[in-house]
Write a structure and sequence with these properties.
The chain has 243 residues and is mostly helical. The chain has eleven helices and no strands. It has a single domain, classed as Heme oxygenase-like (Heme Oxygenase, Chain A, Up-down Bundle), CATH 1.20.910.10.
């Protein structure tokens, strides 16, 4: 009698195959979203750019929280020593202001005050929902599966390169100093993504674990996509009181 292989008995992918399955998620990445396409073609209005900057700030300010959640679940000192750099990259420390401050500079360059970003008055319900889902996913998942969700950064640098060139050439009303965040990201994201990929390949050995890692990456791609759906649509609530 042919024994049907149990789900958990499926053969695990070889390293190269696992890596290519992870990379194949690029087709779901938000560089293909209509909003980013319009941005890259220079078609966004100043209001749409400001709406994007204010909503993406909510994502950026939560990155250190999700990275701290990953660290709090990670038992490996050598991994925590590396991962802590991501928190510092965003929160900064003495002598280096970090990515959150750089995004506040981007906000000011597109005409938003610091307080408008910090008090979250422009954050859309679906953006808040998506970002909070990411932080909670990282709090409640095993550290290596939460790290797998960060592998969208395998696709980030190519998208940011195109975006940065488009912002600099199509949006002359924005002080290009505001784009410093993306210039720094182009250096740091490849390093981060390579380290995260090697950890996932090294620690996800069973087929179940490998498939969980792929599902985490799909979840994150869908999260980034749904953020842009909301940003593309803009504010739909009856006029909310300006705080
Ligand atoms: O600026 C971004 C960033 O700091 C991060 C951290 C990383 C993660 O750990 O999930 N993901 C991420 C991303 C950033 N920028 C996005 C963009 O398109 O500007 C891309 C996004 C990502 O690909 O996950």
């Amino acid at each position: 009698m042919q024994l049907v292989k149990q789900e958990s008995e499926k053969a695990s992918w070889k390293k190269e195959e696992f890596e290519s399955v992870l990379y194949s998620q690029k087709t779901r990445y938000h560089h293909l979203h209509p909003f980013h396409r319009r941005m890259n073609e220079g078609l966004l209005t100043p209001t749409e750019i400001r709406n994007w900057a204010a909503n993406r700030f909510y994502y950026q300010k939560n990155i250190p929280l999700k990275d701290a959640a990953i660290m709090s679940n990670c038992p490996h000192r050598e991994v925590r020593r590396e991962w802590i750099e991501r928190i510092i990259d965003h929160d900064g420390r003495s002598q280096e202001e970090g990515g959150i401050e750089a995004w506040l500079q981007l906000g000011q360059a597109v005409g938003l005050s610091r307080s408008e970003l910090l008090d979250e008055r422009h954050v859309l319900p679906s953006v808040r929902y998506a970002v909070d889902a990411y932080v909670n996913f990282c709090r409640n998942s095993s550290w290596i599966i939460a790290i797998a969700a960060s592998l969208t950064e395998l696709f980030g640098p190519d998208a940011i390169k195109v975006r940065l060139a488009a912002l600099e050439s199509h949006y002359s009303w924005i002080d290009p100093a505001g784009f410093e965040y993306f210039r720094v990201r182009l250096k740091k994201a490849p390093r981060d993504a390579k380290y995260a990929l090697n950890l996932v390949l090294q620690h996800c050995k069973s087929r179940d674990r490998q498939e969980q890692a792929v599902q985490a990456l799909e979840f994150k791609c869908d999260l980034l996509w749904s953020q842009l759906d909301a940003i593309d649509r803009g504010e739909t609530r009856p006029c909310v009181e300006e705080k």
